[in-house]
């Protein structure tokens, strides 16, 4: 068992139902493993410590074959181990997004709204990169569109 931080292990960041169902290898190379460690240390672990509730990403690292199989972007940060999709049972997605925005360094934070556009019942995509400066890009995914900022924010254009 490879521990990436006090509350996260490698197996949960490479777990993929699609990989299992299709017999695809989803093993990260050394570079992606290092990126997963940075993602865990800088995003996932601080979120776990702040909210005190266990959670496991629904998607983190994706090999090229797995990414193709799930219809991911060919430029996805999941391919490099730099991104994770997650929600925390019992904590609203907007609440978690606001904590990340206000307290952590991140590259991209996308809040995907839940049913009826509810920002608390959605999930998050958050990325962290170490090789380049993090952009702190905030987006909301609602009704099939990416909108700037988090719900309820006024964004200058």
Structure description:
The chain has 157 residues and is an alpha+beta fold. It is built from five helices and seven strands; from the N terminus they run E-E-H-H-H-H-E-H-E-E-E-E. A five-stranded mixed β-sheet has the order 3-5-4-6-7, with helices on one face. A two-stranded antiparallel ribbon has the order 1-2. The relative contact order is 0.15. The model has no long low-confidence stretch (mean pLDDT 95).
Search tags:
157 residues, 5-stranded mixed β-sheet, 32% helix, globular
In short:
The protein is of the alpha+beta class. It has helices at 10-14, 17-22, 30-51, 64-69, 93-103; strands spanning 3-5, 8-9, 83-86, 108-112, 123-127, 137-142, 145-148. It has five helices and seven strands, in the order ββααααβαββββ.
What is the ordering of alpha helices and beta strands? Answer: EEHHHHEHEEEE
Gap between N and C termini: 47 Å
Radius of gyration: 15 Å
Largest sheet: 5 strands, mixed
